[in-house]
Amino acid sequence: MAYQVLARKWRPQDFHSLVGQEHVLRALIHALDEQRLHHAYLFAGTRGVGKTTIARILARCLNCEEGVTSTPCGVCSSCQEISEGRFVDLIEVDAASRTKVEDTRELLENVQYAPTRGRYKVYLIDEVHMLSTSSFNALLKTLEEPPPHVIFLLATTDPQKLPITVLSRCLQFNLKNMSAEQIAGHLRDILSQEQIACDEASVWQLGRAAKGSMRDALSLTDQAIAYCGGELSESAVNQMLGSIDQGRVVALVQALQAGDGKAILAEIAELAEQGQDFVLALEDLLSLLHQIAISQVVAEAPVAVQFDQQVVQTLAQTMSAADVQLFYQMGSVAHKDLPLAPDIRNGFEMALLRMLAFRPQLTAEQMQTVPTIDNSSPTTVPVTPATSAEVAVGVAETSGVQAESESKPEPKPEPEPEAKVAPESELKSEAAPKELVESTPEPSPELSQETMPIAEQASDKNSEQSSEQVVGHVNVGDEQVPVMADIAPWDEVPSGWQGETVAASPEPIAEVEDEQAETSIQNAEEPPLAPAKNWTLADLDENNWPTIFRDLQTEGLTRSIAANMVFSKRVGTQLTFTLEEAQSSMLNATHQGRIRQALEAMFGCDLQLAIDIGQSATETPFAQRERRLADHQQEAVEALQGDPYVEQLEQTFNGQLDLSSVKPVQNFKE
pLDDT at residue 343 above 50? Predict the structure, then answer.
C-alpha cells in the first residue's frame, strides 16, 4: 500500500478527536444535539487550522445513517463514503478555480433536486472569497432561502473580502491558530502511535515552527522523519529548520547582562558562519527574555521546553527586571525594523549593541545604595540683595566670591533695601547638581553681608522682626525681572492643610530647587499636629467644628471627606453632619467608620455618627481654607503692587507685574 502523508492519515473523523477550536465545536455539537440547524455556515481562519476538516465532519454528522448526531458512527456507508471523498451528495467546490458566474449558475442548477443518497445535499465551497462579484450576486438568493434539504458550508482564509450580504446570511465561526503546546502534544501522540522515537525539544521545535497550523506541523514532521532517519533529535530538527542552538541564545543574554560587547560580536560571528537566520535568532532571544521575566515574577512558573529551567531561573535571579524589560522592548522594536536594515546581520548586531548602549550603568543592588534627595522638607530660596545698579550673584558662584572676599578687607554692610531683585536663575533654576546638594559647604565667617546667602540674612532679620516675603516677576519687554517684598505675617490656618507657598529655612543650600521639586514640596501631605487642646463634646458646634477638624487624626480621602462636612446637631452621643452633595460619591461605610473612630479618639467616648447629604450655609473647613488661601494670595499681590521698588521698575522700564508669578515665600504657620 502506498504511503499516506501524516496530514491526511491523521485527519480527524469526528469532533472529539479534533485538537483546538473548542469554541466552534461547542456551538456545533449543541446545534446538532438539539436539531437547531442553520442553512449556511462560514468557517474562517488561516491555513491548516481545520476549516475543511470541520466541514467534512459536519457533513458526516448530517448524513450519518443513524440520524443527525454530533457523534457519527463512522462505519455506515455514508460515513465511509464521505471519509473517502466519494459521497455523491457532498459537493466540494474550489472557488479559486471556479470564479466565473457561469460556474456558479451551473452549480446551482441542481439545488432544487432532492439528495441522491443522504439526508442533506451539502455544498462545501472552499476559498469562497475568490468568487467574483457576479458569482456572489448569483449565489445570494439561493444562499438566503435554500431548499430544506440543502446546507451550504463556506470556508475562507480572508473573510474581509466577502460581501456583507453574504456574511449576514451565514453563521460565522472564526477558527484560531493553535498554540505550540497544543501542536506539540498532538504530534507527540501521533509519533507514539507511529512508533517513532523523539525527544521533547524536537517536538517543541516543530510545534513552534508550524506557527499555529496543524497541517504545517504534520508536514514538517514528515520532513523531519525523513531527515532524521526515523528518530527525531533536537540537533537534527534544528538543522533542518535552520533554528538556533538555544545555548547560543543563552550566551547572548549572558553577554548582554555582563555588558561584554566583544563576546556578543563573537557569538554573532559564529551564527553567521553557520548560516543561521538572524530573524529566528532575535525571536529566540525575545522568547528567552520573556521566560526570564515570567520567572522573576513567578519563580515556580513552568519554563518552555526549548530552554533549560535551571538556566532560566539563574538568569532571572542575576538580571535586574529593568534590564530584562528594556532588552525585550528594544528587541521587539528591532524585530519590526529588521527588514529595513541593509543587511540582516548588521541589523541584528545593531539591535544588541543598542541594548548595551542604553542599558542602565547601575545594577539593581547599586541603585538601592545611591543616596536620594529628600524633597519633602522645606527648602530655602536663596536670594542675594542687590541695588538698582547691580544684581547679586547666585549661590553657585559663592565659592568664587568667597575667595575674592578673603583677599580684601571686610567691606561695610550696605543698608538693606525695601525690595530686593533676585536673579531669575535662582527663582526659576535648573535642577541642582547632586554633588552640591549632597555636600553643602558652610559659609565662611569672612563673607560680607552683600555676598552671604539670603537665607542667613533672613535668619538675622527674623530675629528682629517677624514678617513674610513674597516673590514675583515684572515683565520688562521680553525679559522677566524677579522681585521680592515683605508683607505682614499671616495668621493661623487649620493644620493639615498645605498652602501654595514655599517654606523658608534658615539653613543655606547650594542651589535653588527646580520647579518640579517645588511642586512636590507644595503638594506634600503633612501629618496632623498634636491637638491644640483637649476637646469635649460640649465644645462641638458649628463655629468650633473647623477648629476641631484641625486636630482630627485622619488622612487621605477620609480627611478630604471630613473637610467638606459641616456640623449639624448633637443629641447625646449622636452626632449629625451634613456633607456637600458634590462630594457624596466618595462617601462609603469605610470612610464613615474612620471618621467616627477619629471623633471617638478625640472626645474619649463612644459615638454614633450620621452623615446627611445636602447643602449648608455654614462654611466647611475646606471652604474656609480656600478662602484664607485666596486672601493670603491677594495680600501678597497687593504687597508687591504697593512696593515702591516695583513701581519704580514699572515706570522706568514700562514693565508690568506678572500676577501669576506672585508667591508668598513663607509657609502657613500652624
Answer: yes
Cell numbers 525585550 correspond to: 328
Per-position b or e across 236-259, b if 16+ CB within 10 A of its CB: ebbebbebbbbebbbbbbbbbbee
501 and 578 housed in the same domain: no
Residues near 405 by beta carbon (within 8 Å), at least 6 away in sequence: 444, 446, 447, 448, 451
We report the CATH number of the domain holding residue 25 as 3.40.50.300
Which residues 6+ apart lie within 8 Å of 470 measured at CB? 484, 485, 486, 487, 636, 639, 640, 662, 663, 664, 665
Q: Does the structure show a pLDDT above 80 at 458?
A: no
Asked whether residue 281 falls in the same domain as residue 413, the answer is no
Within this chain, do residues 125 and 212 fall inside the same structural domain, yes or no?
A: no
Contact (Cβ atoms closer than 8 angstroms) between residue 396 and residue 404: no
Q: How far is CA 291 from CA 252, 256, 283, 325, in A?
A: 15, 16, 12, 11
Strand order in the sheet with 565-571: 565-571, 574-579, 608-613
CB-based burial of residue 486 (10 Å sphere; 0-12 exposed, 13-18 middle, 19+ buried)? Answer: middle
Three-point CA angle 285, 290, 292, nearest 5°: 95
Kindly report the backbone phi and psi dihedral angles of residue 153, in degrees, each rounded to the nearest multiple of 5, phi listed first: -120, 110
Task: Find the mean pLDDT for residues 311-330.
Answer: 90
Task: Assess whether pLDDT exceeds 70 at residue 167.
Answer: yes
Q: How far apart are the first and last CA of the chain?
A: 98
DSSP secondary structure, 173-204, as one string: EEPPPPPHHHHHHHHHHHHHHTT-B--HHHHH
CA angle 476, 478, 483 (to 5 degrees): 40
Per-residue pLDDT reduced to its tens digit, 28-82? 999 999 999 999 999 999 999 999 999 999 999 999 999 999 999 989 999 999 9
Nearest to 481 by CA among 473, 471, 489: 473
- Output the DSSP codes for 511-527: S---HHHHHHHHHPPPP
CA 536 to CA 562: how far, in whole Å?
18
Domain ranges, residue 438: 373-542+618-670
86 assigned to some structural domain: yes
Q: Same domain for 213 and 312?
A: no
Classify residue 359: in a domain, yes or no: yes
Give the H/E segment covering residue 483. Answer: strand 479-487
Q: For the chain, what is the domain count?
A: 5
Coil, helix or strand at residue 421: strand
